[in-house]
Amino acid sequence: MEPYNDLSRDELIQRLLALEKEFNGYVDESKELEEFLESETNRLTQQVTDLQTQSAKLQDRLDEARKENQSYLHQISTLEDDKKTQIDQLTAKVRTLERQVIDTEVANDGLESKLRILELSKGNEDARTGELLERLAILEDDNIEKDQLLINTQQRVKRLETENQFLLQQREKYEKISKLMTINRTELKVSKFQTPPIND
């Protein structure tokens, strides 16, 4: 740059005009740059605002998803507890049925034993009745105290017949009970392997 003292008046004016033009150009460029920077700043600010809005929405969705997840976990836990309760109830029911089957078998064995005793008793009474009838025939043939012995013997025969009838009734009663026990035992054994459905 030449020293301004060495310039003539016209050269100095030309130099000033050039500097003014250069300054005006710089000012114009500065304004354009300022406008560009301001526009870019606004654009970036809007992007940041949009990103913050999107981030807030995503955070809301994340919070909602977490709440739904907690709700699902609670429902799963409730279902597992219900299922465990149902399994425990079914297990207890199966054990109860098994005990009932055992009790029924024991009771049935007792009834069968009583039936055998009744049959044996009936056989003994039949034999005694036959024996009395034979004695009655002998008494009738021998004609010894015929009337009194006949009356006593007939009364005893009648009493034995009554007892025999009672034994027959008891036998029929125990046979019916035994049949019912056998049917109930069969139903219990069948129900033992029939597990009720579990609600999912």
Automatic annotation (TrEMBL):
<protein>
    <submittedName>
        <fullName>Uncharacterized protein</fullName>
    </submittedName>
</protein>
<keyword id="KW-0175">Coiled coil</keyword>
<comment type="similarity">
    <text>Belongs to the nudE family.</text>
</comment>
<dbReference type="GO" id="GO:0000776">
    <property type="term" value="C:kinetochore"/>
</dbReference>
<feature type="coiled-coil region">
    <location>
        <begin position="150"/>
        <end position="177"/>
    </location>
</feature>
<dbReference type="InterPro" id="IPR033494">
    <property type="entry name" value="NUDE"/>
</dbReference>
<dbReference type="GO" id="GO:0051642">
    <property type="term" value="P:centrosome localization"/>
</dbReference>
<dbReference type="GO" id="GO:0005871">
    <property type="term" value="C:kinesin complex"/>
</dbReference>
<dbReference type="GO" id="GO:0007020">
    <property type="term" value="P:microtubule nucleation"/>
</dbReference>
<dbReference type="GO" id="GO:0007059">
    <property type="term" value="P:chromosome segregation"/>
</dbReference>
<dbReference type="GO" id="GO:0000132">
    <property type="term" value="P:establishment of mitotic spindle orientation"/>
</dbReference>
<feature type="coiled-coil region">
    <location>
        <begin position="9"/>
        <end position="114"/>
    </location>
</feature>
<dbReference type="GO" id="GO:0047496">
    <property type="term" value="P:vesicle transport along microtubule"/>
</dbReference>
<dbReference type="GO" id="GO:0008017">
    <property type="term" value="F:microtubule binding"/>
</dbReference>
